[in-house]
User: Which sequence fits this backbone?
């Protein structure tokens, strides 16, 4: 089961369609370029719903102006330039710390959207002010609105992925709609199990999970086991923004046809039983899982 990453497509659509008159003046964009943008995927062919490493590189001009507080917008388009999903984010370090002549590089793990499309795709990116939507000018393949084509890749069907079966210890899936975006997750109990067909080779487990509960003592660690064999421990944050990876060897998975992973939360919370709580949720909650993926 793979789910859409928590990003705002509604906001991205507005940014994609907005004509930034303050930045571009409605005519030729003669402002000096602040630098260049480069984006690289860890592989050129990516299956829908799967994770991929996205490397960002911003090289600032020696005379670049002060940038202030800005965000990076990243739009994934199909062959007809239709917006599929986004990965807008705050860069690391933040733009308030960027200096003229500096090169800023960082990598994010992103889950590819489950968009109903396979084939050629592209990435356009840029930097904008959340307050005014004004976009910063960069050198490169400008699409006319200070969004720059930075990469091409190919989308493959989900059948390329290892299929996960969610067994015991899971509460029903929950979905929240945010405009065109669906944010989906599934809470665990104290222990939850996931099974998949044994690939008989080394794999990487990707987990994006959190626990936003602020009362009581919510889970802050998720232990991963096969049987009684501890494979590793994944930290659990409050906001679910980070994707964690755990290497699993073929030896650890054994010779059986199926592999069963046990996910154990260090603590659980029943919101309805917390002192002074107005939350009527009587479930035992471990961690909230947005994505679990074996690659």
Assistant:
């Amino acid at each position: 089961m793979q789910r859409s990453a928590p990003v705002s497509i509604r906001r991205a659509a507005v940014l994609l369609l907005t004509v930034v008159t303050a930045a571009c003046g409605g005519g030729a964009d003669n402002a000096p370029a602040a630098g260049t943008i480069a984006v690289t995927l860890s592989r050129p062919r990516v299956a829908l719903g799967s994770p991929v490493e996205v490397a960002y590189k911003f090289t600032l001009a020696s005379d670049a102006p002060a940038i202030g507080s800005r965000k990076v917008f990243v739009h994934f388009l199909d062959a007809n330039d239709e917006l599929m999903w986004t990965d807008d984010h705050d860069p690391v370090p933040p733009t308030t710390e960027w200096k003229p002549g500096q090169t800023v590089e960082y990598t994010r793990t992103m889950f590819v959207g489950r968009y109903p499309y396979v084939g050629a795709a592209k990435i356009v990116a840029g930097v904008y002010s959340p307050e005014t939507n004004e976009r910063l000018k960069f050198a490169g393949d400008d699409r006319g609105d200070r969004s720059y084509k930075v990469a091409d890749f190919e989308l493959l069907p989900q059948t390329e992925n290892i299929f996960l079966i969610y067994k015991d210890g899971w509460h029903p899936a929950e979905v929240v709609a945010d405009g065109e975006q669906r944010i989906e997750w599934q809470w665990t109990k104290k222990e939850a199990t996931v099974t998949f067909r044994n690939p008989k080779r080394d794999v990487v487990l990707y987990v994006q999970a959190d626990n936003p509960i602020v009362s009581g003592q919510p889970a802050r660690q998720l232990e991963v086991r096969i049987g009684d064999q501890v494979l590793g421990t994944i930290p659990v944050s409050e906001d679910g923004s980070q994707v964690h990876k755990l290497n699993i060897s073929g030896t650890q998975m054994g010779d059986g046809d199926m592999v069963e992973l046990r996910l154990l939360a260090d603590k659980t919370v029943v919101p309805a039983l917390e002192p002074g709580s107005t939350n009527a949720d009587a479930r035992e909650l471990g961690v909230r899982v947005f994505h679990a993926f074996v690659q």
About this structure: Residues 271 and 277 are 7 Å apart (CA to CA). The two ends are 13 Å apart (CA to CA). Residues 9-17 form the longest helix (9 residues). Residues 162-294 form a domain with the Jelly Rolls fold (CATH 2.60.120).
